[in-house]
Specification:
Length: about 350
């Protein structure tokens, strides 16, 4: 199987990031969104990311122009006709994804592979809307897609082993570190990550600590690159809630139901960075949160870390994923300095 032409549906931050990853790797990319304005936003997202790379001297302006020239943009799914692979990065709404896959099934050449970048929806349910479920997989990237190296390649009962192997090899060839995963709620990283992030919101809701104390505790003591509330803003509160609904539907554990500020903020139109506000306001440059309450930071870190390590252990015990895949996922998908099983070897509460 060769991959020369890749399609991407949905051009938000994640979709545009996926466009960038493939175009940087030298592939021809077709980016499609539902409207001209969404296409313009996708172009802008790519340009901002490339400008950042040029200003940091990661690539030259000539390379940035070459990357941009490999991308064709549009609103018409027919543009995908000759694609070897199409990756869907639309919002987390099962009906919408099924509609997109049914349309992709109609327009993409018969041997083309269809992949969803879903954060937690059932890839099996998405594949059911096509007549080629054996050629449907999940290809799950992490924010920001050009930075995070981890990719989950999700196979369903119907996915053909050769297709899964080819997509895994493709991920490797574009510089990512893939792991193959079954179609389980939250896959590897989101199951562990969102359970931890939701726990942090509960601490905020219960008045245990301020947002700054919670975030600085995990930045400063755990050395995570971002605090949990800032990270929720980056992921998007709506996406985060959708992942939690999927996890909760599986576990029925009240602790996995979305914590109340998540739903309140969304109801007020605050979905995180993409709407300009979430737990924090992004109208000005966002600085790393600080707090002088050292004792409380220690307490918050202990509480969150203990529960996070417990979830990781449970995931491994129940056969969700291997220790090494969980560690790799958290390090290469979320930029953590070490994986939970490495942390366990020295964490003392
Ligand atoms: N697009 C492209 N590149 C970006 C970027 C963006 N939006 N943001 C940062 N970068 C690059 C920078 O250019 C820089 O690259 P360099 O090291 O090669 O120069 C590097 O990332 C570091 O950037 P900064 O120095 O500006 O900022 P930080 O050091 O604070 O890092 C971060 C920013 C990479 C976002 C880091 O804070 C991080 O890794 N945070 C954790 C993010 C995370 O957990 N992501 C996974 C979320 S779960 C998910 O996405 C799955 C979904 O299904 C929910």
């Amino acid at each position: 199987m060769t991959f020369e032409r890749i399609g991407v549906v949905g051009l938000g931050i994640m979709g545009a990031g996926i466009v960038e990853v493939f175009a940087k790797a030298g592939l021809q990319v077709i980016g499609v969104a539902e409207s001209e304005s969404a296409v313009e936003q996708g172009k802008k997202n790519l340009a901002t990311s490339l400008d950042r790379a040029v200003s940091r001297e990661k690539i030259t302006q000539v390379q940035a122009d070459e990357i941009s020239s490999r991308v064709t943009w549009g609103t018409d799914f027919e543009l995908f006709a000759e694609c070897d692979l199409v990756v869907e990065a639309a919002p987390e709404i099962i009906g919408l994804k099924q509609q997109i896959f049914s349309e992709l099934d109609r327009v993409v050449k018969p041997e083309g592979i269809l992949a969803s970048n879903t954060s937690s929806l059932s890839v099996t349910a998405i594949a059911q809307s096509t007549d080629r479920p054996e050629q449907v997989v999940g290809m799950h990237f992490f924010n920001p897609a050009p930075v995070q190296k981890f990719v989950e390649v999700i196979s369903t009962e119907k996915s053909h082993a050769d297709i899964v192997a080819a997509v895994t090899e493709l991920a490797r060839s574009i510089g990512k570190s893939p792991a193959t995963v079954g179609d389980k709620p939250g896959f590897i990283v989101n199951k562990l990550l969102l359970t931890y992030l939701n726990h942090a919101v509960r601490l905020l809701d219960e008045g245990v600590a301020s947002r700054e104390t919670i975030d600085s505790a995990m930045r400063e003591i755990a050395k995570f690159p971002m605090g949990p509330l800032e990270l929720l803003d980056l992921i998007g509160l709506d996406t985060s809630v959708e992942v939690l609904h999927t996890i909760f539907a599986d576990t029925q554990d009240p602790l996995d139901a979305p914590a109340s500020s998540l739903t309140t903020l969304i109801a007020d139109g605050h979905k995180g960075r993409k709407t300009g506000a979430g737990f924090y306001d992004y109208s000005n440059k966002h600085e790393a949160p600080t707090s002088a309450d050292d004792d409380l930071k220690i307490q918050v870190h202990e509480t969150l870390m203990k529960a996070y390590l417990h979830t990781a252990r449970q995931m491994n015990d129940s056969g969700y994923a291997s220790k090494s895949d969980i560690d790799m996922g958290m390090k290469l998908g979320c930029g953590l300095p070490e994986g939970p099983f490495e942390t366990m070897s020295h964490f003392v509460a």
